[in-house]
Design goal:
Elements: H1 2-12, H2 14-22, E1 29-32, E2 39-42, E3 45-46, H3 53-61, E4 70-74, H4 80-86, E5 93-98, H5 101-110, H6 114-117, E6 122-126, E7 137-139, H7 141-145, H8 152-173, H9 175-184, H10 186-191, E8 193-194, E9 206-210, H11 220-224, E10 230-233, H12 237-242, E11 249-252, H13 259-263, E12 275-278, H14 284-289, E13 293-296, H15 305-310, H16 322-332, E14 337-341, E15 372-374, E16 380-382, H17 385-399, E17 405-408, E18 420-421
Parallel strand pairs: 4-5, 4-7, 5-6, 8-13, 9-10, 9-14, 10-11, 11-12, 12-13, 14-17, 17-18
Antiparallel strand pairs: 1-2, 2-3, 15-16
Helix pairs in contact: 1-5, 3-4, 8-17
Length: 429
């Protein structure tokens, strides 16, 4: 089969052929042929159904509008989905995106793809060549699980897009909680300041940002000796105070009635000169205990529009993570450089959070098998689906702010596209 498929690749997709021939071989590959239809299994993950591949391809193709003229397929599969889509007379171009070169080579050695690859409407791309998810698309779940390190970011974008309807349903379910929290905080909004008071106060400066990832502990000495302003997320506060680091600004945006108050337990007296920036969904008891300046902020979601008409406040971008809001605050403060500490987006050192965070625990308590991102060393870092989403949205945010230089101080956390190692920026200036 390889020679037959290779002939088509050599005629039409020479760059793809060169990449496949240079790809390392996979282990744990076997053809499953004791079932109604054959398929390929890699480490126990089947690329397709072994019972009704045609029916499966029909269901997957159903996710793509019938009238679409250009369609993207993420994953090579065994050709069933490509053939199904190419049967549409209105289709003008089918772009098949390979998520794992080695896997594609194994597939093409065992299954015939020459027929559909010869179709002049077909293009084949290497996944690492795409910086964004392109629509409309269909995806092969087995290949998403087997994506290579180079294609991890694209894989995450596919998974997040597929999960978006579920995420929106979950957010809608929480609206009642948000409404109760906002009502409880109206008295605070009457007297507290506006986050916009911080905007453009640090023009051209370097701002440090502390997340709650396990690698934050590497930077305690550097943060104690800092001369730059330090913004931290609420989950990092207790860990910082425990080692004598007093941040200038703490950002809190979540409504969790039990989890958020735990972030602020203990003696907050050292924070008397610091600022709390909060979304008015944060539990009212947290805001009431804060000893220093309090500034309210809103997100960019439409839910804030009615409240903003009565109590105008500045807005901060977030796609679900407090790290997002803290980063956007640093940008709006006017930072020309932002240095990220403990923004791991994964389980470094086998832990979920930095020691001192009330929810720090062994990673095994939270791990989801097969969910990972590439770390700064080029290795797989276990993580959670929501952290994958936060990472990819943050990378998009970094791209949208080319006027700001982002530096990553973590030597073990996720590789964040668009950032540079922190040793490239001079701290203390």
């Amino acid at each position: 089969m390889w020679e037959r498929n290779r002939e088509v690749l050599a005629e039409r997709f020479t760059d793809v052929l060169a990449a496949l021939e240079a790809a390392p071989r996979l282990e744990g590959v076997r053809v499953v042929d004791d079932t109604p239809v054959p398929t390929l299994s890699v480490d126990g993950i089947q690329l397709t159904s072994a019972y009704d591949r045609a029916g499966e391809a029909r269901e997957q193709a159903g996710l793509v509008p019938e009238g679409a003229q250009r369609v993207y397929v993420y994953g090579l599969g065994l050709g069933d989905l490509a053939r199904r889509l190419l049967s549409r007379p209105r289709l003008g171009e089918l772009v098949v995106v390979l998520l794992n070169r080695s896997l594609a080579r194994e597939v093409l050695e065992r299954f015939d793809h020459a027929d559909w690859m010869r179709d002049p409407r077909v293009r084949i791309l290497l996944g690492e060549s795409l910086s964004e998810l392109l629509h409309p698309f269909a995806a092969l779940p087995g290949e998403l699980s087997l994506a290579s390190l180079e294609c991890a970011r694209l894989r995450d974008l596919v998974v997040l897009d597929l999960a978006a309807p579920h995420a929106e349903e979950r957010m809608a379910e929480r609206e009642a909680l948000f409404a109760r929290a906002i009502e409880a905080n109206r008295s605070h909004l009457e007297v507290d300041g506006d986050v916009a008071e911080l905007f453009s106060t640090k023009n051209g400066s370097t701002v440090l940002l502390a997340g709650a990832g396990p690698s934050l502990e590497d930077s305690f000495d550097r943060l104690r000796e800092r001369t730059e302003p330090l913004v931290c997320v609420d989950g990092a506060l207790r860990a910082l105070l425990a080692v004598g680091v007093v941040p200038d600004v703490v950002v809190s945006i979540d409504a969790h009635e039990v989890g958020v108050p735990r972030m602020f337990e203990g003696d907050l007296a050292p924070m008397g000169g610091a600022t709390l920036v909060y979304f008015p969904v944060v539990p009212a008891e947290v805001i009431a205990r804060w000893p220093g300046r309090r500034l309210a902020a809103y997100g960019e979601h439409a839910r804030w529009s009615d409240l903003a008409s009565v109590h105008p406040r500045g807005r901060l971008w977030t796609s679900g993570s407090v790290t997002h809001a803290a980063s956007d605050l640093a940008v709006r403060m006017g930072a020309s450089s932002i240095v990220l500490f403990g923004c791991d987006f994964g389980f470094t050192r086998g832990k979920t959070h930095v020691v001192g965070n009330p929810y720090s625990a062994p990673a095994e308590t939270s791990m989801v098998p097969g969910v990972w991102v590439e770390d700064v060393r080029g290795e797989r870092l276990p993580t959670l689906p929501n952290l994958c989403g936060y990472l990819r949205d943050f990378e998009r945010y970094v791209r949208m702010h080319p006027q700001v230089s982002f530096f990553n101080a973590s030597r073990e956390g996720a590789a964040i596209e668009g950032t540079r190692p922190a040793n490239e920026v001079a701290l203390g200036q």
